[in-house]
Amino acid sequence: MSNASAPILEMHHVGKAFAGNPVLRDINLSVHPGEIVTLIGPSGSGKTTALRCMNFLEAYDQGEVLIKGQLLGYSGNLRGKAHTDSPALIAEVRRPLAMVFQQFNLWPHMTVLENVVAPLVLGKKMPRHAAKHAAMTALNQVGMAQKASDWPVRLSGGQQQRVGIARALALEPELLLLDEPTSALDPERVEEVLDVIRSLAKQGMTMVMVTHEMAFAAHISSRLVFMADGYIVESGSPRQLFTQPESERLRIFLAPLFRRPLQPEELESL
Ligand SMILES: Nc1ncnc2c1ncn2[C@@H]1O[C@H](COP(=O)(O)OP(=O)(O)OP(=O)(O)O)[C@@H](O)[C@H]1O
């Protein structure tokens, strides 16, 4: 029986080490349809690694990641190390996900349109004419349809990232992963990308995001997840986390990320 509110993503006791150094420790997280979950925390706390384990761009080495109830990346019991490295199986399980990268990752030798069409034709095996139609719809959604025949190098960073978002949207993901989508941008280009993400939020897109844009994260997220030293140290709605008296330590923890103290009215508006 299908359940509309079943989680799209589940992480159970996920651990990961690089060269013996633990980077993720006992990560437990579920994401349900319509949620916007933002991972925040100091540099090196494991946010990007957690995001990359969600779609198996990084192999985790403890616990389980499930996408719509299906185990991602391992064919059996991980503790028994029954690892499948079948790219076809991994691609199949991760199909409901799409990712937006910090460095856009556009192919420089392809036009804007081809950048969005290629994953549809090569990955989703969509016929070219249908792929072009889907790509133009997605480019329109991010306000980049007029630039369809331009080369990426001709675009500003903000425009390139909007194409990166269109490329992910064209895949019609049920969950969009965004890895610091504005960190590589000039300050004056940040807002146009945040505007696109805000409009996706309004449309009900389910998202997991890593960002250092704290005020944005606090306003857009249904849940903030704080990471430190590979652990999830706290999680909850922005309102819960910022307004409950016992969260004073979080406000202190967060102040450097906002780069200024939070004003009472800002807390009230969360
Ligand atoms: N491929 C890798 N090989 C070795 N170590 C890595 C690799 N990727 C990440 N690390 C290390 O894992 C730790 C966590 O990195 P991660 O990028 O997940 O942190 P983060 O919280 O996203 O940091 P930031 O906010 O600076 O992006 C860091 O110490 C980093 O140096």
From TrEMBL:
Subcellular location: Cell inner membrane
A cellular-component GO term for this protein: plasma membrane
Sorted UniProt keywords: Amino-acid transport, ATP-binding, Cell membrane, Membrane, Nucleotide-binding, Transport
S-adenosyl-L-methionine listed as a keyword: no
Principal subcellular localisation of the protein: membrane
Domain ABC transporter: 9-254
Domain of life: Bacteria
Membrane topology recorded in Swiss-Prot or TrEMBL: Peripheral membrane protein
GO MF terms held by the record: ABC-type amino acid transporter activity; ATP binding; ATP hydrolysis activity
PANTHER family in the record: AMINO ACID IMPORT ATP-BINDING PROTEIN, GLUTAMATE_ASPARTATE IMPORT ATP-BINDING PROTEIN GLTL
Family recorded in the similarity comment: Belongs to the ABC transporter superfamily.
Annotated protein name in UniProt: Amino acid ABC transporter ATP-binding protein (PAAT family)
Species per Swiss-Prot/TrEMBL record: Mangrovibacter plantisponsor
